[in-house]
Amino acid sequence: MRTLDKSLLMWPLLRANVAPFERPDRLMRALLAARPFGSGLLAAVAASAARYPHAPALICGDERVSYRQLWQGSAALEAGLAQRGVTSESRVGVLCFNSPWFVYSLLAVVRLGADVVLLNTSLGPAQLRSTLHTEGIDMVLHDDEFAAAVGPTKSLTVGQLRQIVASSTAPPSRPRPPRQSRLVVLTSGTTGHPKGATRRSDDGSAIEGVSALLSKVPLRVRDTLVIPAPFFHAWGLTGLLIGLGLSGTVVTAPHFDAAEVLGLVDTHRADALIVVPTMLQRICALPVRELAGFETQSLRVIASSGAAMRAALVTEVLDRFGPVLHNVYGSTEVATATVARPRDLRAAPSTAGRPPTGVRVKILDVDGSVVEAGVTGRIFVRNAARFDGYTGEVNREPATGLLATGDLGHFDRRGLLFVDGREDDMIVSGGENVYPSEVEQLLNEHPDVEEAVVVGVNDEAFGRVLKAVVVLRSGRNTDSEALKVYVAERLARYKVPRTFVFRAELPRTATGKILRRELV
Q1: CATH architecture for the domain at 68-202
Q2: Which residues of 251-271 are buried (b: 16+ CB within 10 A; e: fewer)?
Q3: Distance between CA atoms of 335 and 403, rounded to whole angstroms?
Q4: How far is CA 496 from CA 357, 517, 519, in A?
Q5: CA-based diameter of the chain, in Å?
Q6: With b meaning 16 or more CB within 10 Å and e meaning fewer, what string describes 23-56?
Q7: From start to end of 288-371, where are the E strands?
Q8: CATH number of the domain at 426-518, out of 1.10.3720.10, 3.40.50.450, 3.30.300.30, 3.40.50.10380?
């Protein structure tokens, strides 16, 4: 029975890898090439290099890297790092913007069996050095511009990595690393210092996680994926690894520019666009005439994750690009929890969707009991692709196998999940519980409001009261009194923000999450 269950879980991945009219020897070569490396990252890239050696794996600006070049180049870099003292016991940081050199570095470190920590390129020098210390990093592979910020830690720039690969004489490579490398992705750190979430790089559970996502998101072998989402972030990394595992072409750029992204979709006739919500917001904010100048009908999938997406933006994306939007809810820790497909989003734009194949989501009350549909509780997820634990912490696996997302939410009677807010965002004002997301959603529906965030601030009389931080649409004008009346007419009086602050933009992380701590 377990074998049958496993086959059903893997079916979406197998289906995505079927190429009509493909020569049968290609798939056989891929399976043989992957076999020595197990079922993880290296197996996926080895298979693609054997199946489509001359196909472009990565395109970034003028750089175009085939699968054979990627595989051989990572072997050359593996040997070069070994000569410079990197071993399977090392811990290597990768500090690169999206580029082929991020991928070369990632693969080379994993081939050595060393742990790789994906560093956020937006960290300031002090926070970066603190992270290097906390994560125990022995060497950093980084873009040239970060040389000063890295400080005294042993490091190699991308310029030096190029020289290592260029001077290589095709060194022999071990068939399999001496130990299983671990990938460490830093959490967003919206409420404090980022923590390292660890996953093994060669793990069958990761394959199950990919298969689960593919059960809801229709990506296929040899697709072209435009990925502006940062590779150091869990969502951008997921898109990258799925693209490489499906022998696809990943098109990217070091920095996000809305018009440039649409240009890449147009030029490469992309099948998929992997983004975070802020990127979609900036794309839709382009002038109508400019948007109309790009050909985007090749897109079968726009997949967004990493932060909550406003219902108004969901509808706008569906109206502009057609029924291609897939909203993925999850986290660095739990991986994918639910996916909202186009028909779900058209029916309920604020939904987080339904669990994919092999994933279980439960809404529990404070006593750990499952609540009824429509009742808000804590969101728990069981996913084979969940993380192993935080750096330096003992993993305490819950007895149920379920992991809390840190969010509150509810299922409706159709089985659609709705995220009502973060557990630690709930505000107790005058004895009443208020979920900021409810007020935010209402304010975001106001015709003059581009975006609004609601936070709690201390108050002598009520303990905590609501404060709304608002970004107005271009050319629109309203004031706090008008917005107070607007909320009071639609919600209970205790949910009306006491104060309104107007800003030109909201502070965000590199992946688009709002830094609420800076708004209090």
Answers
A1: 3-Layer(aba) Sandwich (3.40)
A2: bbbeebebeebbbbbbebebb
A3: 11
A4: 41, 20, 17
A5: 75
A6: eeeebebbeebbeebbbbbbbbbbbbbbbbbeeb
A7: 301-304, 325-331, 335-340, 360-364
A8: 3.30.300.30
Q: What is the DSSP string of 366-388?
A: TTSPBPPTT--EEEEEE-TT---
Q: What is the pTM of this model?
A: 0.87
Listed residue (334, 326, 308, 118) closest to 209, CA to CA: 334
CB 326 within 8 A of CB 342: yes
The pLDDT value given to residue 519: 87
Q: Residue 421 — left, alpha, or beta (φ > 0 → left; ψ -120 to 50 → alpha)?
A: left
Q: Would strands 182-186 and 196-200 be described as parallel, antiparallel, or unpaired? A: antiparallel
Residue type, 239: G
Given a contact cutoff of 8 angstroms between Cβ atoms, the answer to whether 442 and 464 are in contact is no
> Measured between alpha carbons, how far is 59 from 75 in angstroms, rounded to an integer?
20
Closest alpha carbon to 124 in 75, 58, 62, 194: 194
DSSP symbols for 140-189: EEE-GGGHHHHTTS-EEEHHHHHHHHHT-------SS-SS--EEEEE---
Looking at residue 394, its pLDDT comes to 47
Sheet holding 91-95, edge to edge: 155-157, 139-142, 91-95, 115-118, 182-186, 196-200, 389-390
Helices and strands of the chain, counted as H and E runs: 17, 24
Gap between the Cα atoms of 456 and 466, Å rounded: 5
Residues 6+ apart with CB under 8 A from 285: 258
Please provide the DSSP assignment of 1-56 as one string.
Answer: -HHHHHHHHHHHHHHHT--TT--HHHHHHHHHHHGGGTTSHHHHHHHHHHHSTTSE
What sign does the dihedral 141-60-335-77 (CA atoms) show? Answer: negative
Taking 50 as the pLDDT cut, the residues of the chain under it are 1-4, 190-191, 394, 396-399
77's tokens: 């870099």
Using only C-alpha atoms, the chain has a radius of gyration, in whole angstroms, of 23
**How much is the pLDDT for 205?**
64
